[in-house]
Amino acid sequence: MDFRSDNVAGASPAILAAIAAANAGTAAAYGEDAVTARLKARLAALFEHEVAVFPVATGTAANALALAALTPPWGAIFCHEEAHVAVDECGAPEFFAGGAKVVTVPGEDCKITPAAIAARMGERGFVHHVQPAAISISETTEAGAVYRPDEIAALGAFARAERLSLHVDGARFANAVAALGCAPADLTWRAGVDALSFGATKNGALAAEAVILFDPAKGEELAYRRKRGGHLLSKMRFLSAQLEAYVAGGLWLENARHANRMAARLGAGLARRTGARLRHAVEANEVFVELPEPVIAALETAGAKFYRWGGARSTCLRLVASWQTREDEVDAFLARCAAHLPQ
Questions:
Q1: Same-domain check for residues 91 and 114
Q2: Closest alpha carbon to 64 in 10, 136, 11, 121
Q3: Residue 169 carries which DSSP code?
Q4: Antiparallel, parallel or unpaired: β 316-320 and 286-290
Q5: Contact by Cβ (8 Å): 251, 49
């Protein structure tokens, strides 16, 4: 019953097999190999658009490099006040962008809107202020919510009107696509997105993410930034092999659908219990639930693992399902809750 994060899950067998296959023989270094070339073609087909693709090993690297390519050192990056790029990356976006400033914006379910961003933009052209440069959203959000295509399109239109770039932190992008049943293009370039941090590690990869730029002309700068930042792997084929196996045959959506189903099962079971309150709707693979402290203690005693969301004394738990979560784990957790909470 380990619901701490989808990061606790192992790697999908198909991805491990792809790494082993890439290990045979020799290959050109620094991304000049055949596997990386195939990956770029696969992602272009998946997104129905010409793209520039930059595999990296971590989500922090993907976000920081993408935002650095979109933001000058004097620029402002607008994101939700609980966004990963603002809270959990130790200042990496500002560091890689050479001093750009992350400006946080409030919003329900960790979503932001054009109106909320406009209220924080300040005066453009005033030399004493950082200048509006980029918007970054998380798909899915830090509250487990999913941006719909029309919501992203509204942000995209606002970004174009205000001469801003739009970035998506897609650590759980697969969960959003699986939940919505739409094309990846509908949540990215068709909605005005310039750059996507395409996540795979949380959803079955060993360690692999990719920066995807929907204007390949911007790729030259990012290539230098990736190298200068120490994220150009010499044996790139091992990153690319993971990502190729991830998207080939739909593994990325298969894994995400399973994780989403397990979260939905968990959320539905908790919602039936008096004394349990879901803080957010369960839209992807995360459940946020408030439980009485005695129930939390009983779950911990039973060996359940989770994070208290909001601090050590919080009674709100974040429960995350992964591609590896089993139904019996979910049912065991719910049974423990049922022993202490009436229906």
A1: yes
A2: 136
A3: E
A4: antiparallel
A5: no
Hey, what are 223's tokens?
């290539």
What CATH number should be reported for the domain holding residue 311? 3.90.1150.10
The predicted structure's pLDDT at residue 178: 98
- Do residues 287 and 263 lie in contact, with contact meaning Cβ atoms separated by under 8 Å? yes
Spatial neighbors of 223 by CB under 8 A, at least 6 apart, are: 54
Rounded Cα–Cα distance for residues 221 and 241 (Å): 24
280 shares its domain with 174: no
Query: For the segment 77-134, what is each residue's pLDDT rounded down to a tens digit?
Result: 999 999 999 999 999 999 999 999 999 999 999 999 999 999 999 889 999 899 999 9
Does the model's pTM come out above 0.85? yes
Position 119 in a domain? yes
Domain that includes residue 316, residue range? 253-338
Residue 2 located in a structural domain: no
3-class DSSP string for 205-263: CCCCEEEEECCHHHHHHHHHHHHHCCCCCCCCHHHHHHHHHHHHHHHHHHHHHHHHHHH
Alpha carbon distances (Å) from 170 to 198, 199, 226, 273: 5, 5, 18, 33
Both structure tokens of 19:
């790494």
What DSSP character marks residue 305?
B
Q: What is the C-alpha separation between 194 and 254, in angstroms, rounded? A: 26
Closest CA to 86 of 105, 72, 70, 58: 105
Residue 154: is it exposed, middle or buried by C-beta count within 10 angstroms (0-12/13-18/19+)?
Answer: middle
pLDDT tens digits, one per residue of 183-192: 999 999 999 9
User: Residue 205 corresponds to which tokens in the numbers above?
Assistant: 């990869």
User: pLDDT band at 273, cuts 50/70/90?
Assistant: confident
Q: Which two structure tokens, joined as six digits, stand for 87? A: 């809270």
Joined together, the tokens standing for residue 192 give: 């005005």
Q: Is residue 148 part of a domain?
A: yes
